[in-house]
Amino acid sequence: MTLITNAVHCCNCKPLLTQECIANWGRKRPRSGKNFRIAPNEESAIAKAIRAASSRPGEAIFYPYEGTTFSSVEEAKDFYNLYSWERGFGIRLHRGRSNRADYQTSQDIVCSCEGRPKKANSASARTECKARIRLLRGQDDSWYIKTAIDTHNHRFTTAYEENKQWRSHGSLDPLTKDFIRKLRENNVTLGRVCNILGVSDNAAPSCIRKEVVRAWCAKLSQLNLVDDIGKTMNLLQEMKSKDPLFEVRFRSNSNGSLRSMIWCSGKNRWDYSNFSDVVTFDTTYRTNLYSLPFGLFVGVNNHFQSIIFGGLLLTSEKTEDFEWAFTQFVDIMGGKAPVTMLIAMTKAMKSTMPNTNHRWCRWHVLKDAKKHLGQFFSKYSTFKSEFKEIITFITEKHIFESMWQTLTKKYGLTNHWFLKRIYKYRRMWAKPYFMDKFCAGMTSTQRSESANHMIKSLIQKAAPMHLFVSKFSEFQADRKSDESKQNFETEQVSRKLTTKLPIEKHANKVYTKAMYLHFCDQLLESGSFILKHKASTTEFILIDTRLEGTDIARDIHVTLEGENYIRCQCGLYEHMGMLCRHAIKVPIAIPQI
């Protein structure tokens, strides 16, 4: 055998041993293995101590006797921590040793008062206390107490509230940390988290301190901020892999930073293909880390439930931003624009969806009215109720205009700038001018605002983008669950008929449960109307018996158009897709003529 450079060669010139191997030739092979023992059928040290406590009255239950065996360092730490709670001190991990195979062979667990303060004149609990236990490894990978020193040089804490101030007694275990993380992700406030954990509950005291919970919540916030955009992209990619019809579009600045983002799931697109007659859009939700305006495209399904068509994040609310958003939305939906849209962005909508009927949100008109007419609401006790009645309940154009003129003259507001302006644009917001357009009963963006409110209850303030997108997805899953419940009740649960009239029986067959209940309300209200007279073979005039003889009583004209269509001047069918009380009354009353 001849040594050449760093290797030993044999006759076929293949290296056999390096110089390092020769240097370590006589050394014993280091022990290796796991840092814990698997012993599922063996009783734990804590269980043994509790069982043996009855034979040692007056002694500490969890005294660390030398030779006590554990399956892991964590188990030993928990055991010694229980003993420290009994005595009134805290503990922490100290030095440990590992061999060349990175196999840990020893571990010290010391009193929290061990060691010296970092500075001579400083606030510190360290008193150079020598109390400790030393753990060594057994042959079966277990741990056992080799040495136990129980001599302390400081006073012990005695009260419960003092005891839990030691860090070892106020630490959070992994399950509790994960529980807190889930609570915070679901917008549970710090105070409520502490209440749930029993931090401030005197009846069921907890060792957890509020400061520890607050620190963990702060750390969670910091962890959520790490690579937020990367996490968002990964989340969207994961959503795309699970939903092939999922679509997301981005718009970036010249420097590559995100400017706008719109996304729609396969369920959103399917719903839109069936219920795109009317869409509301509003950007009222800004509770996210970057204070980005969040917009929702919302519609109504056949259960009169709000359904989501898509979500939008913007960095600004300029006309060009909404033009991009509306263009992308229509493109994602296969080029199909809504029939009617309730929205405030007039300019952006006209340029992107010119054939869509545009209406303002009536709620915003009322909000502005309160702002500009507040003094008149306070000055005249009846003005507010009369104004609200015209805005909310009147559905006939000529009655609306007549009552408007009467109201403004009565209170001397004929030349008020705000009333003149909203009257000029009355066709954009007033209910009578909505009645010939199908809006599924909507005259405002209240459904969008309601959806925004529900999202706000799910997502914590200053949520990072990836968490925001995740929670928005959960919100849509909740909406889908509610829709499935309504489908089940419609198809599987029978309904009790109110009148047993043929028209009600037919409605029970063709309508969903929610639609049927709305129809029943109209059917019952039809009983208050009588057929005043028949103007022609196809035109009928009805009157509300409850208003007969009063100043506000008025005739209701209902016209038969062919064999299968009834038109009422109130326009409820055109506006909501359901027969009104007047139209229902005519076929019931005709046989009596």
From TrEMBL:
Signal peptide: none annotated. Its main location: nucleus. The keyword Zinc applies. It is found in: Nucleus. It holds the Pfam family FAR1. One of its GO terms (cellular component) is nucleus. Keywords: Metal-binding, Nucleus, Zinc, Zinc-finger. One of its GO terms (biological process) is regulation of DNA-templated transcription. GO terms for molecular function: zinc ion binding. Residues 556-591 form the SWIM-type domain. InterPro entries: FAR1_DNA_bnd_dom (IPR004330), FHY3/FAR1 (IPR031052), MULE_transposase_dom (IPR018289), Znf_SWIM (IPR007527). Putative transcription activator involved in regulating light control of development. PANTHER family: PROTEIN FAR1-RELATED SEQUENCE, PROTEIN FAR1-RELATED SEQUENCE 10-RELATED. Belongs to the FHY3/FAR1 family. This is Protein FAR1-RELATED SEQUENCE. It comes from Urochloa decumbens. The lineage of its organism: Eukaryota, Viridiplantae, Streptophyta, Embryophyta, Tracheophyta.
